[in-house]
Amino acid sequence: MAACGLDFGTSNTTLGCWRGGPRLVRLEGEHVTIPSAIFFAPGREPEIGRAAMAAYVEGVPGRLMRSLKSVLGSTLIEETTPVGRQRLRFRDVIARYLAGVKARAEAETGSALDSVVHGRPVHFVDDDPEGDRKAEDALRQIAESIGFRHVSFQYEPIAAALDYEQGIAREELALIADIGGGTSDFSIVRLSPERHARAERAADILANDGVRIGGTDFDRVLSLGTVMPLLGLGSPMRRGDLAVPNAYFHDLATWSSINRLYNPKTLREIEETRRDAGRPELLGRLQAVVEGERGHSLATAVETAKIAASETGTARLELGFVEGGLAAEIDRDGLVRHTGDLARRIAERVGRCLRQAGVGAEAIDALFLTGGSTGLPHVRAALTACLPRARVVAGDTFGSVGTGLTLEAARRAA
């Protein structure tokens, strides 16, 4: 039985197999990560990953879908979306993407994969155990539909802890923070070289908690604060004291909802709103984005500017594809101003985890950080402030969870 560990992330995906140790498989060229994106073009097989993004950017006619994981735990999972002349359920879209990942891994390793340990967030849905169960059930059914005969799950922060544990020399109490594209997950785990060899680790896991906030939420809030006003958000209607309806802007700022806008009914509504708007030129920009199906270009530009502003202190968000010369300036202070509340809400989960484990902050030896959003300085600062005595360890941003899942897959298959 060939087993693998699969980290299907909101932004990126990895898959690992045991080859003399846990090894992540090259899924796209030399890359072991592949963006969680799929592009449907008429008359062609779907493209996934970077190739999907490239086809969209190059203007190939078709439909791009990103942040696929975020529909798990929402009503969208059972809804359909137009793809060319047909409508596909979102669960079928996820299945096509993961089938492509699985096929690439099998081609790379030369082995058929029939057993998988899937990573999952601590909570797909906040404060909704039934929604959580349904989301895991949906992911299990999808995995089985693409050929996995044995499907099990492991919390993503626990998987990251297993990766971190490979390199430690003594016993530690670690808080694992996995801040990804869609969720922020935490575990407090007792680790040591001796414990690493044990098959049963339940007693070493002192706490698990999480919240459905991740990098795409930072993108959404930043977009609503800096870009969507340029397209009419918050602008007045000509009559009365009403503002332009904001639902279009929220969908356009949310990765998983962008495709909802691409239909004749919405275009007619936007045109009617533009005619009655106090600033019709702004609504004209919104109209241009939706008519040209450039919502993902907009979201990608925001994501890129977020990363640049966090790394260098300032970024210019070029929007020439909307209107010649249009741009927005974002600096680190603005990034913190718009998204600081999200960072605080993430850090609050550290306190909840400590209470669940029954330990104080001073008992934590190491804070292990993984996931792309730990690269945001104000997120990292909010987390480290909760554990001022802990040693901060930066893991493999995109690979720690996948490596840990691979370790777990090998153990369960033994």
TrEMBL record:
Transmembrane segments: none annotated. The keyword ATP-binding applies. Pfam families: HSP70. One of its GO terms (molecular function) is ATP binding. Belongs to the heat shock protein 70 family. It comes from the Bacteria. PANTHER family: HEAT SHOCK PROTEIN 70KDA. CDD domains: ASKHA_NBD_HSP70_YegD-like. This is Heat-shock protein. SUPFAM superfamilies: Actin-like ATPase domain (SSF53067). Keywords: ATP-binding, Nucleotide-binding. The keyword Disulfide bond does not apply.
